[in-house]
């Protein structure tokens, strides 16, 4: 299978020095035995993950299970406690800050609530990276910005400020900004959170279309099962910092794994416990009062 | 707000900021008065300089002709050594007497030049011989009191 | 029991002290990083100009009005005191020296901290809370270079100008009250002032003070913003801390600087 390389204005950017890629021997991203802990609280344990080129991969799980942490590890914003995070053949956590910034130029990220720069117009938000990283003339930047905005259907909103946008529009602008420099990888952190059903399917469709049109790879971190199963190629299920299941969208839908089943069908009870783990039995808690951890005054 | 408007306002801001600095320097301060022109140096020894400070004015006939540049102490003669920068436009005869005066009763102290009649002028770095020390107010008062007391006592005896 | 309580008090105290010291170290490292990444702010100077607009130009009104009133009050109070000694012509000296040496730099720095410093903290804090700084980092743009450094330099540049404006406005206010309203002789007002206000001793030292205050306020403001907890509560707490910490720091630094500058 030939991976479509990006074309158009992106060619004007400096050459990316990308290696020849083989099939799954050379995936875009490979996480090997990754552990991560905040202070001493483990967030991720023994994560093995492969993101092939040109695919849309979802990482699903409950809130706080370590999905966003995984994205931050890939983006190099966090360093794993142990294990190896490789992106395009480079070990992310061993790069110096220049190398990391070089790598990040080839990544796009959509943040949970868009994270648009509130002091800039929609236009300037999308032009931001072009202006920061290239010396392109303003006319060319204009054309590129309009292309990106056209792709998300918001060419008419170029002059608006982020505060004037609806949630769905803001998400689409953030999406246009994430693809501003035609990245090789787009990461979506909860792209569906808080959207109305129409915006939801628009964003879902855009993720799939942009991935195929730009020939990039995408990682979608989400807990919206129904919407994401429509668009993704492969799914990793994360629970309590471990990968508990993986498979194609079809396999996941028909999985008999209790956890996956509970998740996909949204059942309130199952292997996922309602209670946050505690060492004290409920009865003892009720009888013993606030305990000795209290402040002396 | 577009960039041109912002630039304009910032330009206005910086301009009036610098203008007020200039106002402080020229109108409020003495930058204009303290001409940075050519000067020559004179030195003088005093028995007592009182409250004279560095940068105090040097006046002749009430006109500022220079400033005190440095004040030191001669450990051998136990006298104060005062160095002055005098405006090169003004030359003074070699027998000029330097006195330390006070402007007003409680004002600042300055060095006054009482010009003599010599035809030779001071050269750069010259040492002034004829000086008169500062009048120390306390001394003056105690002297006055002492005299007054002596006078009163004398008067009493006469009676 | 008492020993235990005492130990806990000491522990709490020790914890607070170590936390402060740790934060101070972090703040120093942050200042160093800001200076190190100042290239962008100075090379692409329009970024800094934009921030000068928000910190300097928008503080103009409050600085000018406060300066005018402080000067007018000095005129009134100074006249009242000086006339007892029959030396009202020294009013110019009193107004000018107190403004140029102390009130100009200090009061304008305090106003600057509450007007611009708090705004900088809130802005950076909100950018952090809404993941804009994270987003910038993921776009391979260093937020310290792009967001922090321009704001820092804008504060450093604006502060001496604002202090000079404050002093000039205050002297004008003193002139209005003293000369125009009360009737002190205008000639002696200005000439006495000029005779006693020294350019290097008083005015340059005042400018140095305001520059130092500018560094202090800007540093505290950007640091508190950058270090704030990414929540609404965190940002509001950081904003308060900026105003309190920088006010105390200004007064403390003023004491130190005054002790160095005006000893003789």
From TrEMBL, chain B:
<dbReference type="InterPro" id="IPR030970">
    <property type="entry name" value="ABC_MlaD"/>
</dbReference>
<keyword id="KW-0472">Membrane</keyword>
<dbReference type="InterPro" id="IPR003399">
    <property type="entry name" value="Mce/MlaD"/>
</dbReference>
<feature type="transmembrane region" description="Helical">
    <location>
        <begin position="6"/>
        <end position="26"/>
    </location>
</feature>
<keyword id="KW-1133">Transmembrane helix</keyword>
<dbReference type="InterPro" id="IPR052336">
    <property type="entry name" value="MlaD_Phospholipid_Transporter"/>
</dbReference>
<feature type="domain" description="Mce/MlaD">
    <location>
        <begin position="39"/>
        <end position="115"/>
    </location>
</feature>
<dbReference type="GO" id="GO:0005548">
    <property type="term" value="F:phospholipid transporter activity"/>
</dbReference>
<dbReference type="Pfam" id="PF02470">
    <property type="entry name" value="MlaD"/>
</dbReference>
<dbReference type="GO" id="GO:0005543">
    <property type="term" value="F:phospholipid binding"/>
</dbReference>
<keyword id="KW-0812">Transmembrane</keyword>
<protein>
    <submittedName>
        <fullName>Phospholipid/cholesterol/gamma-HCH transport system substrate-binding protein</fullName>
    </submittedName>
</protein>
């Amino acid at each position: 299978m030939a991976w479509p390389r990006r074309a158009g204005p992106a060619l004007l950017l400096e050459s990316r020095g990308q290696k020849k890629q083989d099939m799954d021997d050379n995936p875009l991203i490979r996480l090997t035995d990754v552990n991560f802990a905040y202070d001493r609280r483990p967030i991720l344990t023994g994560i093995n993950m492969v993101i092939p080129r040109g695919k849309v991969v979802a990482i699903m799980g409950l809130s706080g299970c370590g999905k966003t942490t995984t994205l931050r590890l890939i983006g190099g914003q966090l360093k794993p406690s142990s294990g190896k995070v490789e992106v395009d053949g480079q070990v992310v956590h061993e790069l110096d800050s220049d190398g990391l910034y070089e790598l990040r130029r080839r990544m796009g990220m959509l943040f949970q609530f868009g994270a648009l720069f509130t002091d800039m117009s929609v236009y300037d938000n999308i032009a931001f990276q072009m202006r920061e990283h290239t010396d392109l003339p303003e006319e060319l930047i204009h054309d590129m910005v309009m292309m990106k905005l056209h792709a998300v259907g918001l060419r008419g909103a170029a002059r608006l400020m982020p505060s004037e946008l609806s949630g769905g529009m803001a998400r689409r602008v953030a999406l246009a900004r994430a693809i501003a420099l035609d990245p090789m990888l787009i990461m979506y952190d909860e792209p569906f959170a808080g959207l109305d059903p129409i915006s939801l399917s628009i964003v879902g469709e855009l993720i799939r279309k942009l991935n195929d049109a730009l020939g990039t790879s995408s990682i979608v971190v989400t807990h919206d099962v129904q919407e994401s199963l429509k668009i993704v190629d492969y799914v990793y299920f994360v629970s309590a910092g471990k990968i508990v299941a993986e498979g194609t969208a079809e396999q996941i839908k028909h999985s008999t794994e209790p956890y996956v089943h509970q998740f996909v069908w949204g059942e309130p009870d199952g292997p996922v416990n309602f209670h946050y783990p505690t060492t004290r039995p409920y009865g003892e808690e009720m009888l013993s009062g606030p305990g000795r951890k209290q402040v002396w005054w | 707000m577009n960039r041109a408007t912002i630039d304009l306002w910032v330009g206005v801001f910086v301009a009036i900021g610098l203008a007020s600095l200039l106002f402080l320097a020229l109108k409020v301060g003495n930058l204009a008065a303290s001409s940075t022109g050519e000067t020559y140096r004179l030195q003088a020894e005093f028995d007592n300089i009182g409250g004279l400070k560095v940068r105090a004015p040097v006046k002749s006939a009430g006109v500022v002709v220079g400033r005190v540049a440095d004040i030191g102490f001669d450990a051998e003669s136990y006298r104060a050594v005062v160095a002055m920068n005098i405006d090169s436009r003004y030359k003074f005869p070699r027998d000029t007497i330097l006195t330390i005066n006070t402007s007003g009763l409680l004002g600042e102290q300055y060095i006054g030049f009482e010009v003599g009649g010599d035809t030779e002028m001071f050269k750069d770095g010259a040492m002034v011989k004829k000086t008169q020390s500062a009048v120390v107010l306390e001394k003056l008062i105690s002297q006055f009191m002492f005299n007054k007391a002596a006078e009163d006592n004398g008067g009493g005896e006469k009676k | 029991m008492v020993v235990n309580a005492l130990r806990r008090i000491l522990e709490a105290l020790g914890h607070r002290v170590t936390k402060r010291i740790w934060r101070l170290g972090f703040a120093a490292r942050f200042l160093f990083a800001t200076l190190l990444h100042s290239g962008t702010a100075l090379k692409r100077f329009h970024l800094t100009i934009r921030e000068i607009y928000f910190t300097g130009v928008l503080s103009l009104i409050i600085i000018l009005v406060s300066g005018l009133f402080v000067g007018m009050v000095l005129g009134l109070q100074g006249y009242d005191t000086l006339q007892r000694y029959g030396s009202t012509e020294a009013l110019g000296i009193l107004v000018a020296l107190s403004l140029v040496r102390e009130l100009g730099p200090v009061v304008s720095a305090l106003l600057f901290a509450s007007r611009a410093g708090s705004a900088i903290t809130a802005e950076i804090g909100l950018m952090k809370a809404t993941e804009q700084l994270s987003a910038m980092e993921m776009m391979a743009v260093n937020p310290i270079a792009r967001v922090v450094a321009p704001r820092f330099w804008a504060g450093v540049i604006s502060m001496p100008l604002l202090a000079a404006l404050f002093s000039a406005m205050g002297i004008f206010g003193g002139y209005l009250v003293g000369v125009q309203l009360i009737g002190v002789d205008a000639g002696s007002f200005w000439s006495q002032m000029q005779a006693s206000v020294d350019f290097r001793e008083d005015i340059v030292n005042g400018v140095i003070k305001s520059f130092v205050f500018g560094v202090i306020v800007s540093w505290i403001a950007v640091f508190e913003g950058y270090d704030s907890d990414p929540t609404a509560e965190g940002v509001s707490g950081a904003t308060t801390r900026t105003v309190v910490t920088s006010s105390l720091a200004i007064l403390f630094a003023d004491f130190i600087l005054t002790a160095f500058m005006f000893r003789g």
